[in-house]
């Protein structure tokens, strides 16, 4: 594709917005790229777009071209603290769809109060990398179906969205699980990023809720990080998830920013 859209420039020269592929747009002024737009379809089918431009006028021109060429609904994600960018998206018709709170989570059990937390007597924690892949994938499917039937899996963080094959489990070594006799009933996923590990998901089967399993999984994960010398981890929680919010804030996690998912229908 090579569609072109002429627009007013940042000074006296015109900006030309060109659709260079099915998913990319370039804004060019005086033979210099002054902005880019990208589109990507997530595994759950939703189409997300992003725009990188120094000037608001260029942002708007790229947006006009993308909105003309792409089908609704369209989604984007912004740091809520970046009011200028958030306002730019709202100016072209995007509205908030959901918010995720970012939490900095301490790992020291003397801070979290999780040092004495144990799973129920009939449940054991299988450390990350030691779970059997078959039962782990079966649990992943059960939990995914339960979430989909309730709030919908699209409310989960982007990193645990289902892939084309329908699974959300790509690397079994990142999961510790709670085992009840010969069944896996809960899991926690920790991504070992160098700067700050990320707690990507904590989930327990619906028929095993309110037994303290999620809290025990979190205690295990944070304790392992603490013993390895990691002072804090990062987690993101949908603002509508009252149980997860209470779990993290109850162990001293502090909100450290928020992300907005915006939609234009």
UniProtKB/TrEMBL annotation:
EC number, UniProt record: 2.3.1.-
InterPro entries: Acyl_CoA_acyltransferase (IPR016181), GNAT_dom (IPR000182)
CDD domains with a match to the protein in the record: NAT_SF
Gene Ontology MF annotations: acyltransferase activity
Superkingdom of source: Bacteria
Segments forming domain N-acetyltransferase: 123-265
Pfam families the record matches: Acetyltransf_10 (PF13673)
Keywords from the named record: Acyltransferase, Transferase
Major enzyme class: transferase
Name of the protein: GNAT family N-acetyltransferase
């Amino acid at each position: 594709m090579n569609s072109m859209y002429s627009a007013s420039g940042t000074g006296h020269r015109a900006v030309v917005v060109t659709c260079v592929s099915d998913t990319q747009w370039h804004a060019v002024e005086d033979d210099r790229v002054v902005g880019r737009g990208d589109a990507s379809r997530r595994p759950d089918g939703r189409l997300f777009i992003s725009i990188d431009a120094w000037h608001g006028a260029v942002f708007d021109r790229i947006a006009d071209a993308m909105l003309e060429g792409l089908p609704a609904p369209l989604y984007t994600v912004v740091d809520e603290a970046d009011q200028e960018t958030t306002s730019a998206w709202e100016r072209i018709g995007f509205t908030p769809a959901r918010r995720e709170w970012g939490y900095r989570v301490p790992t020291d059990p003397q801070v979290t109060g999780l040092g004495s937390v144990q799973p129920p007597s009939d449940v054991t924690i299988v450390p990350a990398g030691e779970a059997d892949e078959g039962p782990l994938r079966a649990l992943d499917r059960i939990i995914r179906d339960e979430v989909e039937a309730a709030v919908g899996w699209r409310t989960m963080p982007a990193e645990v969205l289902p892939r084309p094959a329908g699974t959300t489990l790509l690397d079994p070594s990142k999961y510790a699980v709670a085992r009840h006799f010969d069944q896996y009933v809960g899991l926690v996923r920790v991504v070992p990023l160098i700067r700050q590990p990320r707690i990507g998901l904590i989930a327990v089967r619906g028929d095993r809720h309110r037994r303290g399993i999620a809290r025990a999984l979190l205690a295990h994960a944070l304790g392992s990080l603490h013993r390895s010398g990691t002072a804090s981890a990062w987690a993101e929680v949908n603002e509508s998830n009252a149980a997860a919010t209470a779990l993290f804030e109850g162990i001293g996690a502090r909100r450290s920013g928020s992300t907005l998912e915006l939609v234009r229908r």
